[in-house]
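Possible regression after last week's pipeline update?

I re-ran a chain I had predicted before the update to compare outputs. Posting the input and the new output here so someone can diff against the archived version. Not blocking, just want to make sure nothing changed silently.
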Amino acid sequence: MDYTQNTKIILKVSNLKVSYEDFVAIDGVSLKVRKGEIVGLLGHNGAGKTTLLKTIVGIVPHTEGSIVLGNEQVDQLPVHERVRKGIIYVPEGMQVFPFMSVEENLEVAAHNNRNTIKQRLNMVFELFPDLKKDIKKMAGHLSGGQQRMLVIARALMTQGKIFLLDDPFLGLTPKVINRLGGAIVDISRCGYGILLAGQHVKIILKLAHAAHLLVNGKLELSGKPDDLSNHPLLHKTLFGTQFSRDVQAI
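New output (post-update):
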């Protein structure tokens, strides 16, 4: 699908800047995410990926630029209003409620839309059948991969339109990464936008429709995943080496 031609823009970030006194953490970042699209955000530790996601949802204040959700500028709204309108940030790590069951974890996320709980549970269990099997299990007893799936499933129980996923593959085995990656693709096919940040270059570029390389708060590369995967700047930035077809980005 040609997302630049046929699909509605859900999120538009324009010339976003975040400064702390003399330090510029995010410097003039502009990007778009369309309905049903996965946009990859790559960068080394400290490049500004988490800061950018937190700025979009309102946790970190910006000093310049705009954030538009659909047709509405939301950058002056507090976090809870941006969440209510559909920007859902899923932070790095496994932040489940460990002493609540899988079912309770999911239901608590739907407190603002109780009338659609059954419908959303059905969708979640289609995407994550393992969670349905363990619906009564305490979340703290799930495996690391299952907990990560539960965190993303819980985000789906909200009235989200776009999901900001911060390094969802961190610490997972290759097998679980592939399963979770497949679920993320299925989520996008349901019409949600996804901004997928992390350092797992190979899987992110495999899943994404478009991608960006963030270097010290600036977007230094933007384009199709195949173009970025073959670009020497990406290899030099993330792997400290010039591009070689023998280099495996994992």
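Follow-up from reviewer: compared with the archived run. The domain at 3-92+162-239 is CATH 3.40.50.300 (Rossmann fold). Marking as no regression found.
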